[in-house]
Amino acid sequence: MTAEVVWESVLDDRYDCKxxxxxxxxxxxxxxxxxxxxTLYDEEVFLxxxxxxxxxxxxxxxxRDKIVKVVDGxx
Length: 75
Description:
This protein is α+β, with helices and mostly antiparallel strands. The protein has one helix at residues 57-71; strands at residues 5-11, 15-23, 26-33, 38-46.
């Protein structure tokens, strides 16, 4: 059984970014570098309103900020 994908995006045609559901209000944010096949980031994140109809705009903005910092080497 695969985890439910709540949100996913590709940054710079290189980094796979994905949030999968852990529980009703919890997800797992992962960033994978497709060139090196290395997981750059793996953190449990909060899902506002349970993300039943998709992720909250504020959650996505927070995730994107974290992803950019990781990719830019700031985190």
